[in-house]
# Entry
Amino acid sequence: MDEQRNMLIAAVLSFVVIALWFFLFPPEQAAPPQDPAQQTATEGAPAPGDADAPAGTGTVASAPVDRGEALARAPRVAIESPRVVGTISLKGGRIDDLRLLDYGETRESDSERVTLLSPLGARDPFYAVYGWLPTSENPVSVPTANTDWQVESGGPLAPDAPVTLVWDNGEGLTFRRTISLDEDYMFTVRQSVRNDTGTSVALAPYGYVARRGEPDTVGFYILHEGAIGKFDGVLEELDYDDLEDLEGMAGPGERVQSASVTEAGWLGFTDKYWMATLIPSPGQPFTGVFKYAQRDDAAEFRTEMMLPVRDVAPGQTSEAETRLFAGAKEYATIADYQERDGIPRFVDSIDWGWFFFLTKPFLQMLLFFNSIIGNMGWSIIALTLVIKLVLFPLAYKSYVSMSKMKKLQPEMEKIKERVGDDKMKLQQEMMALYKREKANPAAGCVPILLQIPIFFSLYKVLFVTLEMRHAPFMLWIRDLSAPDPTSWMNLFGLLPFAAPGPESILGILSIGVFPILLGVTMWMQQKLNPAPADQTQAMIFAWMPWVFMFMLGQFASGLVIYWVANNVITFVQQYAIMRSQGVEVDFFGNVKRSLRRKKAQS
# Structure
């Protein structure tokens, strides 16, 4: 039967694509703990403005210490806001201690809060530094990574309560740094220098975000983690291996890549859900720099923002203002900064993937439904209904065409008997019949093929967006971004032992309730049509639902819920449309005949 053949082609193509996706991009697994010996940190490492610490030098790295001990090495100013807490180190004036109050390491309510920024000396140092660079023609003392700043006013840092730090170089230059924080994740850093030397001074303000040692990453091919920047509308993404392979040389052990921005941009480091990003004031040109430096045995990764040199006349003060986003990649928050503060394409800090034209609206619709329903699982089902509604005209046309093909089966059998083994004649007669009856044998493939980019886009949304992290559905589904936690191997929790996890070879066989529902609903769709007469086709169709069931069993449960809902809606649509076209749909008869056929073959 031609419609069965076309369905087979579409199903096999879908299988091949998803199989390729599964083996190239396996479901996320927990990253192994990093070897502490690879974690390096030294206090007072060289910065762009460190006149007393030439680039490429440093102390031999030591093992990381307890985070509390690392924080205690320098006096600090507290950060206290509704969404973040932490401290600012007065040694170097670094923003190097930040935790996100709205997010836990696990979904348990008493879980430790997510740590974003950490000081030198602790595990995974991640921090922001600001300063001034003197020109070679006009060398002066400037603040370095070892400078001891004083609190001039304010503290603790909170929304509408800025902190001002001050340092006098003893040679007529007074440096100030005023740090502000909004209600979310945006720091504003205003640097100023007062010149009382009697002569003009040329200085260039800068800021950079640095990481010491390569951080733990998800390591998943479809997700970018590492340096990111938007320069005059062009998005740059470099993972940590890319940074190590930069070709530009800036000094002993240093490799760089820079881009001079003439309009607007931003740069920083992104993780799966969190980000630290440098942002200039609107209209402020800057040079963005990606840098890798080997500090003895301590690898350092940097993104730097260099502002133009400015001449500070005697008795004058020069100021430079930049911003630092340090927080969670919440779509609504980032989109608001983009719109309100004019940060160009800031939402592209979220990795939308190849099908961004689908991924973005899918997330926006999910957030809209969630604002009404209050549950991301039901929002996924609502999105499925919308997708099926948008595709309904095409699906209707497809199922009508398939119904016509069913009605033409007796006529097609007569043609086969009449022409015998003459394949050319058979093809001509069939094409004439299709044209006369306005039937399209390939129409059944189109809705299935359209599901492929939709599937990939929704998978991307579920995998990379923070809004899906730890989002519950109902009953045992407490995290839509994780696989269904139940398993048939322990009778869905009735037996007193844990089922194999994804790290085990048996993990692919350990599937839960929703993957099983996926297989069952795919099987139900098949039984709307009689089994193909060809035994090979019939065998492939028979195995297809169960192969998909195990392949997708370790994918995000939100994606499997979407697929189950899609199968159920498709079943209802196809049944109703075929009946409306006068086609008899013998679902239970097809099931019985399939079982009898299997029994006869065995």
Q: What stands out?
A: The CA atoms of residues 264 and 284 lie 7 Å apart. The first strand starts at residue 76 and ends at 80.
